[in-house]
Amino acid sequence: MPFGRAQSKATPPASTLVSAETSAGAIPLSKETNTNPPQSEEDRSEVFKAKAKVFNALVDAVDISRIATTDRSEAAEEIGAIAAEIIDEKRIPLTVKDQEWLIDSIIDDVLGYGPLEQLLRRDDISDIMVNGADDVFIEVGGKTQKTSIRFQSNEQLLNICQRIVSQVGRRVDESSPICDARLMDGSRVNVIAPPLAVDGPTLTIRKFKKDKLTLEDLVGFGSISEQGAEILRIIGRVRCNTLISGGTGSGKTTLLNCLTRFIDTDERIVTCEDAAELQLQQPHVVRLETRPANIEGKGEITMRELVKNCLRMRPERIIVGEVRGAEAFDLLQAMNTGHDGSMGTLHANSPREALARLESMISVGGVSLPPKTIREMMVSSIDVIVQASRLRDGRRVITHVTEVLGMEGDVITTQDIFKFEITGESEDGKVIGTHRANGGGRPGFWDRAVYYNEQGRLTEALDGSDPRSMRRDLEA
Ligand SMILES: Nc1ncnc2c1ncn2[C@@H]1O[C@H](COP(=O)(O)OP(=O)(O)OP(=O)(O)O)[C@@H](O)[C@H]1O
Ligand SMILES: [Mg+2]
Questions:
Q1: What SS3 class is residue 51?
Q2: How far is the CA of 213 from the centre of ligand 1 (A)?
Q3: Which of 61, 110, 136, 390 pairs with 233 at a CA distance of 20 to 30 A?
Q4: Which residue puts its alpha carbon closest to atom 12 of ligand 1?
Q5: With a 6 A CB cut-off, is 386 part of the ligand 1 pocket?
Q6: What domains can you pick out in the chain, each with its CATH number?
Q7: Residue 36: how many other CB atoms lie within 10 Å
Q8: Whole-prediction pTM value?
Q9: Which of the pair, 464 or 415, is modelled with greater confidence?
Q10: Which pLDDT tens digit goes with each residue over 226-235?
Q11: Quick check: 113 and 76 in contact, CB under 8 A?
């Protein structure tokens, strides 16, 4: 046994010791890999008492500090075997199901993030939201739902948060109650602790999906029509400078990831993100990540610094995960200075609002140019805005593909190449709508399409979705 029952009493790591005191009591959601928890309140408390007993005996018997260096599945097997031995030795009366549950949840507590583990294992969950020990919500298939998962106490929850953020060298406590982190699998985590979070530690996790959605998947979901997807492919390929706009969780990063698939393999791409979520397929990619300040408030590297540095790295395209501040100006400059095909996402509810947000980010960011000059710069930099939205039925849809055309007086003029028009609602509350091209002739990036020899595909995609030649009703 690599870390079998130690002869002398071993000292487990501090985090494990803390959770040993508080770990019993997690009520799991039913899951494929675990048995259901005991059903009645009485059974439940009996099994939780048993769990605490086994857990304490296990901590006493096993050199847990060595577990961290052992392969997870091997470690899980060992812990399971020792826990079963303890149950046997102490003659703890348990049904087979309860024993399975108890062992699984002890493994989760020792090796992972306790009750969170069973949610982290599920691939169908996109977000996990923990609002204090008793309220755990998940998002599945675009819908938010409450789970039966509970942490034993806010203290246990905070310990788990602590374990998560310690991996990126941070701490959460009263003096630094806000923290961003990333799990080993790439999931993005935000923790906000009391006193700022009034009802207990609050944890938000955007699960990392290994299999990213592709444009074909989005067509399959009805998020965009086949012709719309083709137009997006062409936009990615012919190096249009593109902004992806949308609300929180509307699918911006997913869409950005899809668009980058059509970049040629010989281009040098530099990506700047707060947490590396993008998965580019090209061979020549440099991935950069911002860094928050450390515990002493030092060492922060902002998105603006990254984008500025990018320009000295000879990129052909720059991809900014999320534009939310002064870096907007640097991205526009990059777009304007030979880095065609650069892309970024931003939070806005329509293409018009995206332009307004960009303008205000630049002016608030300390660039003292007259508004009209900023707008002219935006017009000469940005070719296309793609709008992602989450509809009220939970479905994510690409609602606009809009071109930035020019200026009329002080106002930026735009044209929708493609639009999602809502036509009604089905009996079960699903939104019904149609993706339509505006039918208004050639888009402004036509010359680019010709340059890349994509005019044939572009004409076909535009004609195919012209409302005069075809109308396709999309129903989820
Ligand atoms: N068109 C779609 N249909 C179904 N699910 C989608 C679609 N687009 C994205 N998703 C899923 O929705 C979740 C959120 O997507 P994504 O991370 O792209 O959103 P976002 O707008 O970047 O979010 P944030 O504002 O938090 O950065 C992910 O789990 C993703 O797989
Ligand atoms: Mg995102």
A1: helix
A2: 9
A3: 390
A4: 251
A5: no
A6: 1-112 (no CATH), 115-208 (3.30.450.370), 215-474 (3.40.50.300)
A7: 13
A8: 0.79
A9: 415
A10: 999 999 999 9
A11: no
